[in-house]
């Protein structure tokens, strides 16, 4: 990923008061991306939306906004909400991703702790069940 693209993503996230933290994950974070690879991002939001529909749409709409602001083709940028994503995805983001912005460390750490705790519970359950 180009450094100027990283800077632009961080600037976009910094402008938003509802974003506590921003991660890059996936092939671009690992460094094994190709020319056609998309940008996989994760965010921790500072607030919790009561409406399940609004919670589900928020990262999708954010991805569309940022894609347009960056001049990227359709479906070249995805955003996962660390607060609602599946635990295996959250674990992967935390293990392999790169934290790009940390505006509210307490919110970030709460999200990280929740995912790690639930991952340990799931791993423990699977180990007991399947040995």
UniProtKB/TrEMBL annotation:
Protein name: Nucleotidyltransferase domain-containing protein
Molecular-function annotations in GO: transferase activity
InterPro entries membership: NT_sf, Polbeta, TA_antitoxin_MntA
Source superkingdom: Bacteria
SUPFAM superfamilies: Nucleotidyltransferase
Pfam (any one): Polbeta
Keywords: Transferase
UniProt source species: Billgrantia kenyensis
Polymerase beta nucleotidyltransferase domain ranges (all copies): 8-104
């Amino acid at each position: 990923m180009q450094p100027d693209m990283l800077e632009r993503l961080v600037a976009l996230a910094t402008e938003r008061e509802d974003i506590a933290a921003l991660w890059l994950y996936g092939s671009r974070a690992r460094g094994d991306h190709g020319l056609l690879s998309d940008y996989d991002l994760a965010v921790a939001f500072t607030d919790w939306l009561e409406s399940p529909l609004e919670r589900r749409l928020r990262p999708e709409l954010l991805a569309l906004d940022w894609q347009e602001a960056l001049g990227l083709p359709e479906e070249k940028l995805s955003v996962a909400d660390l607060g609602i994503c599946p635990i295996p995805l959250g674990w992967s983001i935390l293990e392999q991703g790169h934290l790009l912005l940390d505006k509210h460390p307490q919110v970030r750490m709460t999200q990280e702790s929740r995912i790690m705790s639930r991952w340990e519970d799931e791993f423990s359950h699977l180990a007991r069940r399947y040995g």
